[in-house]
Amino acid sequence: MAYHGISYEEWNQLVQQNRPLPPTVNLCIHDEIERQARIHPSKVAFTSSEEDLTYDALSRLSDLVAYDLVDRGVIKEDIVPLCFDKSPVMIIFMIAVMKAGAAFLALDPEQPLSHTESVLHEMDAKMIITSETFQYSFPSDYPVLVPPSLPLLVGQLGRASKWSPPIVSPKNAAYCSLTRASTGEPSGVVLEHRSFVSGIFWNAPAQMLNEKSRVLQLAEYWHDECITEILTTLCVGGTICSPNEVEIQEDLVEFINLKEVNWAALTPSFISTFQPVDVPTLKTLMLDGETVPQSLIETWSEHVVVLSSYTVSECSGTISVGYRVENDSTARNIGRPAGVALWVVNQNNVHVLMPVGEVGEILIEGPTVGRGYINNPQATGAAFVKPPIWLRPILSPSQKGNRLFRAGVLGRRSLTGTFEIISGEDSQKGIEDAEDDSAVQVAHVARLIRYGRIDEEESKEPAADNVY
């Protein structure tokens, strides 16, 4: 007898694989980072060739900035756009915005002005906080604040010594991610503190991230992978290793060895430029962002733990991890769910389940699913759906109001419980993957130039005085 598209036997197997559903962890991201600061205050949280920052310093500096943000009128649920070069100041502000009760949004400075203006309007932004490099990259009708340098921030630490931070709920917004909703327009999605923390309790161990991790911070701040490289690393007590632009372009391998990086998320095209013997400290390699060639898996899996992962902007953190990719793994395999339940449904009807091995749309269930698209109820209603008929009988009373996210990609579940992505016409993995506008394509090419694929120097704006 069939049960919404599959046999009862298959249904029972799927329930066993997808239950129990990971619970919601009602904690705030910055509170988890503060906990690490109390455990090992003198441990280095951030390191680069220019400067190091301990957990204690990160805690006190983010308190200082949060104090100033609240004084400037930032309140709970505000969205604060940030745009910085590679710098610990960006990380300080990410944490400070959350401590102030608001949510941060990392902007891509190389997007067309019209795109940025649309985003800022949608977010109802009060101000933009940015570095001197990008202070003239934004619409003139938005106040732009340029923070002082890190040494100057350190010199102001006493200002917030008696400050009482606002009480932030795990239900409050923590950060926003830009993606492309089903309407085709760029849209922001809100992720809550509890969504992110609920996810890392499962996906951090699956990704082998812990207090001993020295994580290469290579992703640009507006990219989804950056959230793992920065926030997950800090929440588990690891160390962020951040190369500067010159090191990225000229000798990333030297930086990896100098900082003893042991965990890195890299694209297959990037990792193919060197060999395992060149990076002896590297122990865990996350390959994502592109289809993974089988030859690359074979080369690296003999020397390091090779993982694959899958993320969507509409859910906090990594939703699946290909744990210990072996030589017989397929290049399209994204592994097993991490902190979520994954279902495969008919792409035209979420109330119909697809049998194991057959292709359908990936449906994501769990506490990491985001709130929805900002000021876009039509797209939210289409992508964030109520529990399908087949799911309702196994939901607890507290779960019946949960929404699931339609990932917009086709995939299938294997007999072993892993998942393969077959296609992604509407992958929703970030606006940079789906934008058709020619100006945005130009911005993408500019990023490739900046990351050293050809010899071309960037023009630089003259330095300006701090106005923060």
Descriptive account of the structure:
The strands form four sheets. Strands 13, 14, 15, 16, 17, 18, 19, 20, 21, 22 and 23 form an eleven-stranded mixed β-sheet that branches. A six-stranded mixed β-sheet has the order 8-7-5-6-9-10, sandwiched between helices. It has a four-stranded mixed β-sheet with strand order 4-3-12-11. Helix 2 packs antiparallel against helix 3 (55-71) and helix 3 packs across helix 4 (88-99). With 468 residues, it is of the alpha/beta class. 30% of the residues lie in helices and 22% in strands. The relative contact order is 0.13. The chain is globular and about 65 Å long.
Measured by DSSP, the beta-strand proportion falls in 15-25%
What is the helix content? 25-40%
Provide the gyration radius in Å.
Answer: 22 Å
For the secondary structure, the number of strands is: 23
Q: Unreliable runs, pLDDT <50, ≥5 residues?
A: 425-468
By CATH reckoning, the class of the domain at 29-168 would read Alpha Beta
Overall pLDDT: 86
Please name the CATH architecture of the domain at 29-168: 3-Layer(aba) Sandwich
Overall shape: globular
Question: What is the CATH fold-level name of the domain at 29-168?
Answer: Rossmann fold
Q: Please give the count of helices.
A: 15
Sheet having the most strands: 11 strands, mixed
Structural class: alpha/beta
Question: Span from first to last CA?
Answer: 67 Å
